Input
Amino acid sequence: MNKYKNILVTGGAGFIGSHFIRHLLNKYSQIKVVNVDLLTYCGNLENVKDVAKNPRYKFYKADIGDHGAMLNILKKHNVDCVVNFAAESDNNKAVHSPTDFVKTNTFGTAVLLEAVRQCSLQASRQIRFHHISTCEVFGQLSLKSKSKFLETSPYKPRTPYNASKASGDLIVKSYFHTFSLPITISYCANNYGTHQFPEKVIPVFTLKAFKNEPLPVFKSSGNKREWIHVTDHCRAIDLILQKGIIGESYNIGTGLEKTITNIADDILTVLKKPKTLKKVIPDRPGHDSRYLLDSSKIRKLGWRPEIKWPTGLQETVQWYKNNKSWWEPLLSKSNAWSR
Output
């Protein structure tokens, strides 16, 4: 049983947000979900096409930076919980248009928080606010380091994307300390799974391998990322909503690390393509060497990752193979790949 009845999911037409909406509607028969998404380049209603006719689901095309729109939606649907996925998230695009990332990830988060606070005051009830952050706000670890990022690790963002997310996090925390708004924050490792926009490394590599095109591997091919299947991430967020301590933050990670070369080789193996189908390209500016989260705090709540990398990657690659009609129209929107 979920303690919340009317959940607003922002960025719900995106990759992780759409999976979370599906998770809620499939798991809980009493929950109603409101999806707010501006449908920018990576927002795609095809991601939630399967739930669009569910009577417990409602979609609004709206900007989290539009205070009036957010306040009206919160009131109209008697929202008691907000889960904020809405974000610009591609490091490459942030290098070329950093202010767009500040607008959404920092200013947008602040406007949404204020709408939640005012609605809480007017309705004389507290609205829970869970904010989706990223491991990248903590900066980078050296490749040989034995350290892991804790929830209390200092913020050391190195790119415009990371900095905009860190700024949004700090505003979320300020609303807890200043206004007693019931917030929680989660920092997650790199996600993979179905419906991921084809700017990210796994879909990029997969689609290029389909066409026997070279897979672009950064020059710093030894840099590592921690990986988690999107379904395991959604389960973790759900658990934080149920058992998480108000005002606290939680790391969500698996401990599974992969280099860019590892990922390319694994995808080529799944598709039975030659390992020579790789091409080294220059590093992007501010390319972090490594992220790794200490997830012991959320594991104490009872969460464990369930989907193993070989199984999850096989299923993901197969989904892209079977859903050309989903990804082919999106290729024109994506001219970059990241992390």
Observations:
- The first helix runs from residue 15 to 27.
- The chain has a mean pLDDT of 93.
- The chain has eleven helices and twelve strands.
